[in-house]
Design brief:
Low-confidence stretches: none
Mean pLDDT: 93
Strand order of the largest sheet: 3-2-1-4-5-6-7
Structural class: alpha/beta
Shape: globular
Number of strands: 13
Helix content: 40-55%
Oligomer: single chain
CATH architecture of the largest domain: 3-Layer(aba) Sandwich
CATH superfamily of the largest domain: Glycogen Phosphorylase B
Largest sheet: 7 strands, parallel
C-alpha cells in the first residue's frame, strides 16, 4: 500500500518553538508510517531552517508568501494555483499547517489539490481581520496546543472541527558536568541559579523577572539569573535588549543577571541551572517547561494561557500571577531556600513529563488524528 504524503507547512524561518514542534510532528508521522515533506517559506533564514530539517532526515521544499490584498488579489491567486499544482504533482494527501499564518497561503491550495487541510494553533489570535478569517475558511480541522488556546480565537470553528493535541516532551537532555556548564557562563559554582530560555522580545516578561531579582538580592546575595535568547537577531530584539539592559542598571542587578545570547546547546543550559523560570505575557503551551521538567528541574511560571495545563502548581513547580514581581521573588526564594523541595518538584516534573506528555502518547494521538483525516470519505 502506498504511504500517504503529508505536507507540513512552516510559517516562518526563525528556528523556535513552532519550527521545532513541526519537525517533531513530522518525525512522529514518519514513525507511524507516513511520508513527509516540509514546506519552508522562501524568506531570509530559509537555508538554516532547511539544514535543520535535513539533519532530521526530512525532505523540504520552498513556497511563496505573496502579499494578500483584496484590492490586488492576482498575485495571491496565481501563487495558490501554482502551489495546488505542486501538491497534486507530489501526491500530497494532507496539508498540515504549523500555525494559522501558514494556512493563509496554503489552505486554499490544499483544497484545490484535493488534499485534506489542517492547521495547528499555537498562540492566541483574539483579533483577526476579516480578510484573515476569510483565508482560513478552507481549513477543515484545527489542532490546538492547549485548551486555553482553543478558547482564545477570533475565528468560528464548528463542533467537531477542533481538538487539543498536547505536544511531546523532548527526550531528557544528557547529564553534563555542572561545574563545567557554569564556568562556560561565568556563573559561581556554589550559587543558586535560575534560568529563563526565551527570545528577548516584548512577548516575554523579562522585566518583571529582573525586578523580582532585585527583591531576591535583598534576601540572598548568592542567587543568580541566567537568560539565554537572541539579543540581536533583528531590530526588535536589539531594542528590547537595550530596554532590559537599562532596567538591569537601574535595579543594580548587573552582577547577578547574565545575558548569554542565543544558546544552541540547551543541555549545557539545563546543566547550569537549579530551576527554570518563565516570566511571560502570553503563551499557548510552552514546551520549554516540559523540557525543564524532563530534565528533573522545578519550574516557576506565570499563570497564563496554557501554562497551568503543563505545570501542577505546588507539585512540579510554582505558578505566579502575571506581572507580579513580589510573588515571583517569593517563589524564587522559596526554591532557593529549600534544596529538598527543588529535588522533589524536579522528580515529580520528570514523572509527569514522561507519563502525560511522552513521545509514545504523542505518536498514538498523531496516528489516530491522521487516520481519521485520511479515512476515505
Amino acid at each position: 500500500m502506498q504511504r500517504a504524503l503529508i505536507a507540513h507547512i512552516i510559517p516562518w524561518t526563525n528556528i523556535a518553538g513552532t519550527e521545532l514542534a513541526t519537525i517533531r510532528l513530522a518525525e512522529a508521522a514518519r514513525a507511524e508510517g507516513y511520508d513527509n515533506i516540509l514546506y519552508v517559506p522562501d524568506l531570509p533564514g530559509a537555508a538554516a531552517l532547511e539544514a535543520l530539517c535535513h539533519s532530521h532526515g526530512l525532505a523540504t521544499t520552498r513556497y511563496q508568501q505573496p502579499e494578500v490584498r483584496r484590492s490586488r488579489p492576482l498575485p495571491y491567486l496565481a501563487n495558490t494555483v501554482r502551489l495546488a499544482a505542486d501538491f497534486r504533482r507530489r501526491g500530497v494527501k494532507l496539508v498540515h499547517n504549523g500555525e494559522v499564518m501558514g494556512a493563509y497561503f496554503t489552505a486554499l491550495a490544499g483544497r484545490l489539490a484535493g488534499a485534506r487541510v489542517v492547521s495547528h494553533v499555537r498562540a492566541d489570535h483574539p483579533r483577526l481581520t476579516d480578510l484573515e478569517r476569510l483565508l482560513l475558511k478552507p481549513v477543515e480541522q484545527y489542532l490546538y496546543v492547549s485548551a486555553s488556546t482553543a478558547a482564545q480565537q477570533d475565528f468560528p470553528v464548528a463542533p467537531g472541527r477542533g481538538a487539543v493535541l498536547y505536544d511531546a516532551v523532548p527526550p531528557p537532555p544528557p547529564v553534563l558536568d555542572r561545574a563545567v556548564a557554569r564556568a562556560h557562563y561565568g556563573l559561581p559554582e556554589a550559587a543558586v541559579v535560575f534560568g529563563m530560555p526565551a527570545r528577548i522580545s516584548a512577548q516575554k516578561d523579562h522585566a518583571t523577572l529582573i525586578r523580582a531579582m532585585a527583591l531576591v538580592q535583598r534576601a540572598r546575595s548568592d542567587v543568580h539569573l541566567l537568560l539565554v535568547g537572541d539579543t540581536g537577531g533583528d531590530e526588535g530584539h536589539r531594542a528590547q535588549f537595550a530596554k532590559l539592559s537599562a532596567l538591569v542598571a537601574d535595579t543594580g542587578t548587573g552582577a547577578f543577571v547574565h545575558f548569554a545570547g542565543f544558546e544552541g546547546d540547551m543541555p549545557r543550559f539545563y546543566a547550569a541551572i537549579d530551576a527554570l523560570v518563565l516570566s511571560t505575557h502570553t503563551e499557548g503551551f510552552p514546551l520549554v517547561l516540559l523540557e525543564a521538567m524532563s530534565a528533573a528541574l522545578p519550574v516557576i511560571a506565570t499563570r497564563i494561557g496554557g501554562i497551568p495545563e503543563a505545570v501542577a502548581d505546588g507539585d512540579t513547580g510554582i505558578l505566579v500571577p502575571h506581572e507580579d514581581a513580589p510573588a515571583l521573588a517569593q517563589a524564587m526564594l522559596r526554591l532557593a531556600d529549600d534544596a529538598a523541595l527543588r529535588d522533589a518538584m524536579g522528580g515529580a516534573g520528570r514523572k509527569m513529563a514522561q507519563e502525560r506528555f511522552g513521545q509514545a502518547r504523542f505518536e498514538r494521538d498523531v496516528a489516530a488524528f491522521y487516520g481519521r483525516m485520511l479515512r476515505p470519505r
